[in-house]
Amino acid sequence: MTYTFPKDFLWGGATAANQFEGAYNIDGKGLSVQDVTPQGGIPAKPGDRNPLITEVPTEDNLKLEGIDFYHRYKEDIALFAEMGFKVFRLSIAWSRIFPNGDELEPNEAGLAFYDKVFDELDKYGIEPLVTLSHYETPLHLTRKYNGWASRDLIGFYERYVRTVFTRYKDKVKYWLTFNEVNSVLHAPFMSGGIATPVEELSKQDLYQAVHHELVASALATKVAHEINPDFMVGCMVIAMPAYPMSANPLDQLAVRDFENQNYLFSDIHARGKYPNYIKRFFKENDIEIDFAEGDAELLAEHTVDFISFSYYMSVAQAHNPEAYETGKGNILGGISNPFLEASEWGWQIDPVGLRLVLNDFYDRYQLPLFIVENGLGAKDVLVDGPDGPTVEDDYRIDYLQKHLVQVGEALQDGVELLGYTTWGCIDLVSASTAQLSKRYGFIYVDRNDDGTGTLARYKKKSFNWYKEVIATDGASLYK
Ligand code: BG6
């Protein structure tokens, strides 16, 4: 059955500064945690518990040059416009605006860069969707303060967000406070700029860092609405539904425990207080969150306008996980589901899971939702096509088509959804593995894992496919 998506549905694509801008030390930009993690944000080898962190940026770090969006943004935005994008998700690199993170005055050259990008988007009527912190904590804040483990970061973050809200007051409407805010539990360095090795990081310190981010997010929401009441501020979480391995009630309990670890973040953002279920977990793990005066009120009074999330995969859970094969590649863990196939990186593909997530979030919060990441990382092969080099990426089209059909189902279920941005609409550097060969884009970028390549852009088959999806308001999905 054909379904037509709402006329005002925001179709588009998503990126993050550190994965595609390059220009890591240009025009006054300071270093971020990404500039010293050349192998990505998760441990590179089995047995390691922390990512590789270098003292200084090293040449093998593909993120330093990325795909050079910094100098090629006009060409890239023109391609997004050609596909018909209504929205483009990008992040502001915090260390372009405050190079060390704790300065009093911002770096004008950094601010001017994003002015140019927003103006270029405006030229084509593309709405920016801006992540304020996408795994990009300024490195100085990590080295001097231990990142979000320190309460000091709330003040530095407030200064930063106040600066960009004021500067782009009339250019940006949609803001996300922290990318995949729940990932700090699993990747404290990449996500929270916390330098303590995971084996030494206590649960107390980790959840206190979570608290600092949650308070900072509420504060950002408050400041945003003061600066422009029309701003729409969202939280952003990793959505990963879990299925029980069996009908054993204990497996269902394991599912609930896993899901509560994720819901914790959206619950506090949307409901304004810590949920009761976490109190028991805190008690059993000797965690006592230190609330400063005013924290509870901030959380309660400045809840988000919408919930956004990334969705790539689902997992299975059981009360006896050691009896099963563990899923690969994702930072949240979980068991492989025998009913699902996986990408080359072990991420299990589950379109129906997306419909479930949409319904669960909407039922839980009755707030508008926004899917701000979804896509397939795959190795593409460039071939000669009638119009020049291209990629026959039918596997990507298949993934996106099946997920979008489920989005259509959820819309018909009654879910309120603002839009959908595919991850890595142009090839960029992977966050977990720092590879360029893990490609997500509609646009192929000629750059390889060894750093070679011309950086030329080529349209993949999926480019025209997505263009038609947008032009037909989704109707072409059902051909
Ligand atoms: C999300 C992140 O986890 O997934 C992105 O927000 C990331 O930054 C994306 O790139 C895909 O993951 P990866 O590891 O394949 O790049």
TrEMBL record:
This protein's UniProt keywords: Glycosidase, Hydrolase
PROSITE patterns in UniProt: GLYCOSYL_HYDROL_F1_1, GLYCOSYL_HYDROL_F1_2
Superkingdom to which the source organism belongs: Bacteria
GO BP annotations, alphabetical order: carbohydrate catabolic process
UniProt GO cellular component terms: cytosol
Entry annotation: catalytic residues: 373
Molecular function per GO: 6-phospho-beta-glucosidase activity
UniProt EC number: 3.2.1.86
Keyword Hydrolase set for record: yes
Pfam families attached to this UniProt entry: Glyco_hydro_1
Family of the protein in this entry: Belongs to the glycosyl hydrolase 1 family.
Name used for this protein in its record: Beta-glucosidas
Native organism: Streptococcus merionis
